[in-house]
């Protein structure tokens, strides 16, 4: 692109500052509210909106008795103005972080069990390397995580792996295996150290809801053991709640050992070996196949490979 063509493209476009002002008007619900939020005069905001409407050749706002309302064109522009405002805010924050020697930001999503198993491990190694970083961790279902990756709301998803080949749009790799165990509380102190699933399927259970990768692995355990699925079941996707129920009632569950390592270490829960299990739980990372991972994402994944 030549300097002349770049200048032409810019002159034909919109003033980013006007879009930021428009976004604030939409958020505030009034011209006066936007002026207060931006620290400028109300006539200045009104003039900016008028110039933007003139540039586009359409009305963006309608005055009402209670303030303003967006026209159809205004609704369409607001989505883009909000996105631009977010990009500008993130750009400023990125420069500030870089100046302070802080990597990121990075947004990582994951299913409950995968987060518990992988995130503390990776952060420990990053901290040991004296890394400074800005990271957000979000818990969600497997299906929701894939959609968040598509919308680029997260960069990495920590999930159950190995159940099926990932969709073409995703890259997926396993970083850890962890054996399943029957997890019980004090109410089942008399159970042996190992047993078969078919001998306890009639007990009251806590199991994950249908639909996620973890639930499919649990289902496979019962299928491989050639026993029916439990009927007396509380369906729960909250790892913390599941452990709380098992700890305080006579219900049992199946979890990877590492997920309950803290509770096992202090004796509030007990892990019983499940006999004749032919596979282990696998967890790992999912990312968009077309995306170039940020340096912090690459360091996070590398940290997962360390012992």
Automatic annotation (TrEMBL):
PROSITE patterns recorded: HTH_LYSR
Q: Which Pfam families match?
A: HTH_1 (PF00126), LysR_substrate (PF03466)
**Cross-referenced Gene3D superfamilies:** 3.40.190.290, Winged helix-like DNA-binding domain superfamily/Winged helix DNA-binding domain
Please name the InterPro entries in this protein's record: HTH-type_LysR_regulators (IPR050950), LysR_HTH_N (IPR000847), LysR_subst-bd (IPR005119), WH-like_DNA-bd_sf (IPR036388), WH_DNA-bd_sf (IPR036390)
Q: Which domain of life is it from?
A: Bacteria
One MF term from GO for this chain? DNA-binding transcription factor activity
Mind listing the UniProt keywords for this protein, alphabetically?
DNA-binding, Transcription, Transcription regulation
One GO cellular-component annotation of the UniProt record comes to: cytosol
Q: Which SUPFAM superfamilies match?
A: Periplasmic binding protein-like II, Winged helix' DNA-binding domain
DNA-binding as UniProt keyword: yes
Q: Where is the HTH lysR-type domain?
A: 14-71
Give the similarity note: Belongs to the LysR transcriptional regulatory family.
Name of the molecule in the record: LysR family transcriptional regulator
């Amino acid at each position: 692109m030549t300097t002349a063509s770049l200048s032409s493209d810019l002159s034909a476009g919109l003033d980013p500052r006007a879009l930021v002002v428009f976004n604030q008007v939409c958020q505030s619900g009034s011209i006066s509210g936007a002026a207060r939020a931006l620290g400028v005069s109300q006539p200045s905001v009104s003039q900016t909106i008028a110039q933007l409407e003139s540039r586009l050749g359409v009305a963006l706002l309608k005055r009402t008795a209670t303030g303003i309302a967006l026209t159809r064109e205004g609704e369409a522009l607001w989505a883009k103005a909000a996105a631009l405002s977010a990009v500008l805010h993130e750009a400023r924050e990125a420069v500030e972080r870089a100046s302070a020697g802080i990597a990121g930001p990075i947004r990582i999503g994951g299913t409950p069990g995968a987060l518990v198993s992988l995130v503390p491990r990776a952060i420990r190694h990053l901290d040991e390397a004296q890394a400074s970083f800005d990271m957000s961790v979000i818990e969600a279902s497997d299906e929701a995580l894939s959609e968040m990756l598509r919308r680029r709301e997260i960069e990495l998803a920590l999930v159950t792996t190995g159940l099926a080949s990932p969709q073409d749009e995703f890259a997926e790799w396993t970083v850890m295996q962890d054996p399943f165990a029957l997890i019980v509380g004090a109410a089942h102190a008399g159970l042996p150290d190992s047993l078969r699933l078919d001998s306890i399927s009639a007990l009251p259970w806590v199991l994950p809801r249908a639909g996620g990768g973890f639930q499919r692995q649990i289902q496979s355990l019962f299928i491989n053991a050639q026993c029916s699925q439990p009927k007396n079941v509380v369906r729960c996707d909250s790892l913390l709640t599941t452990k709380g129920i098992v700890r305080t009632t006579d219900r049992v569950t199946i979890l990877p050992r590492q997920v309950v390592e803290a509770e096992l270490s202090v004796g509030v829960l007990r892990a019983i070996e499940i006999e004749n299990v032919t596979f282990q739980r696998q967890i790992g990372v999912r990312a968009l196949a077309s995306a170039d991972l940020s340096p912090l994402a690459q360091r996070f994944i590398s940290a997962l490979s360390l012992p």
